[in-house]
TrEMBL record:
Residues 443-459 have a biased composition (Acidic residues). This is Glycosyltransferase. One of its GO terms (molecular function) is UDP-glucosyltransferase activity. InterPro entries: UDP-glycosyltransf_plant, UDP_glucos_trans, UDP_glycos_trans_CS. Belongs to the UDP-glycosyltransferase family. Residues 440-459 are annotated as: Disordered. Pfam families: UDPGT. The lineage of its organism: Bacteria, Bacillati, Actinomycetota, Actinomycetes, Micrococcales. The keyword Transmembrane helix does not apply. The keyword Glycosyltransferase applies.
């Protein structure tokens, strides 16, 4: 049996997608990854086969820098970073206006290359990143059964009256101007309509008999896989989703890092705080500086904190003098550090959230863009996080929020432990394997049904 994984050339996307493939690998089955050259090393580390596929202009092997991107993508990245410094509405407007070039890049050419790869690999199962729209066009137009994976908050697939790019929820710390929100939604609606026209034009070229889409952002595969815990998703919204399975998380196994292992062992009973804004938003050195200032003077149970900071593209020197007991590197093995952490400070990206929930670690969330706002609101509502505006939160506010989360007890702590237990031991890859195996066994017209625990059973 062969699994084909189709991923953008971004480490943050490939890590969870490749982790899902380990369920096939464990059964001795063949796994092939179609992705770009920047992430070839990650594919090799997993021990999978690789075929080259470029789904967009940009790439990211782990830490993204504008100067490393091709012409055009570099300026787009600088524009995005600049927008995050203005605020959430400006950031979401920038992302909306760039949507077609980001998500539907050379759709017909890419789709035909994907179809060529499928014919060459002859997969029994196909997993594709939900945001790889050109690749999904290829599979839909060729009638190839597949699962698409939402690597983010489930609102990445709009339902009901939602509009892609317009968050359905905001954390309480954010109070955007109502008029600006009206204008943002209008923009997202125009982008949706333009994007759908482009989707339908490409679909017509690939399959003239295919019915056009009314909203390309609502299109999904034969089964939708959500790399997100069902426990954090509204049951009312779950009822509106197409055939789906909540995977919970896809936590990768990391190679041992002796320096990090020694540092973790030396901590003893001292609380560890992990800080990371992911591969993109680590560029926000001003926010990292305020976070480090907040944590520098914070104690818990009479202990100074030990802090591990993945600074990414930020120069650590800009953060000022840091305690000798802190661990500061460009990149850290996030899964390993989270397994020892008492708190994590994050931008609210999908990997950070799902890996922290798997480790049972509460979060101080500083969301910047896209689905991070809805994800932060869900975490706040569950009592597992506190969210603040990264552009306005002061060191004292950050310090107070961190202290509150370090002291998390009672019913929220018990629920967080229960969630952690439900996500442990590779549950996500096993759920993906079950969903794809059942899908392959179904007649073309047979629908899916939800089972008792809220995960869709493709049977």
């Amino acid at each position: 049996m062969t699994l084909l994984i189709i991923s953008p050339d971004y480490a943050s996307h490939l890590f969870p997608l490749a982790t899902l493939g380990t369920a096939w690998q464990a059964k001795g089955e063949r796994v092939v990854v179609a992705s770009g050259p920047a992430t070839a090393g990650i594919v090799a580390e997993f021990g999978f086969e690789r075929v080259n596929l470029q789904l967009g202009r940009g790439s990211n092997p782990g830490t993204i820098r504008a100067e490393d991107q091709p012409t055009g993508e570099d300026d787009a990245l600088r524009g995005f970073f600049a927008a995050t410094r203005v605020g959430l509405v400006e950031t979401l407007r920038f992302q909306a206006e760039a949507r077609s070039s980001d998500l539907l890049w050379n759709p017909v050419a890419v789709a035909r290359e994907v179809q060529r790869i499928v014919a060459e690999v002859r997969p029994d199962h196909v997993i594709v990143d939900h945001l790889a729209f050109s690749a999904r066009l290829a599979l839909i137009s060729a009638g190839v059964r597949h699962a698409d994976v939402v690597l983010g908050h489930p609102t990445a697939l709009p339902v009901g009256d939602e509009v892609y790019g317009y968050p359905s929820q905001w954390p309480a710390a954010f109070t955007p101007d109502p008029l600006e929100l009206v204008r943002l939604r209008e923009l997202c609606e125009r982008v949706r309509d333009d994007f759908t026209l482009q989707w339908n034009d490409a679909l017509l070229q690939l399959d003239p008999a295919a019915p056009p889409s009314g909203d390309a952002f609502t299109e999904s595969g034969d089964v939708l896989l959500l790399n997100y815990p069902a426990e954090l998703h509204s049951p009312a919204r779950t009822a509106l989703l197409p055939e789906h399975a909540f995977l919970g998380s896809a936590v990768r196994t990391e190679a041992d890092d002796p320096e990090v292992t020694r540092w973790l062992d030396e901590a003893g009973d001292t609380p560890i705080v992990y800080v990371s804004f992911g591969s993109f938003l680590s560029v926000r050195d001003d926010v990292l500086a305020r976070v480090t200032e907040a944590l520098r003077s914070l104690q818990y149970d009479g202990h100074d904190l030990r802090v591990a900071i993945a600074v990414g593209s930020t120069d650590a020197a800009t953060l000022g003098p840091l305690p000798a007991t802190w661990l500061v590197r460009s990149f850290l093995p996030q899964v390993a550090v989270l397994s020892h952490a008492a708190l994590a400070v994050t931008h609210g990206g999908n990997n950070s959230v799902t890996e922290a929930m798997t480790a049972g670690v509460p979060l101080l969330v500083l969301p910047f863009s896209t689905d991070q706002f809805a994800g932060a609101a869900a975490l706040d509502d569950a009592g597992f996080a506190l969210s603040l505006d990264p552009n306005t939160a002061s060191p004292s506010e950050l310090r107070e929020a961190a202290a509150t989360l370090l002291a998390l007890t009672g019913e929220p702590r018990q629920r967080l432990r229960a969630l952690s237990a439900s996500l442990a031991d590779g549950a996500g890859p096993r759920r993906a394997y079950a969903a794809l195996t059942q899908l392959a066994e179904l007649p073309e017209s047979e629908p899916a049904e939800d089972d008792d625990d809220g995960y869709a059973s493709i049977a």
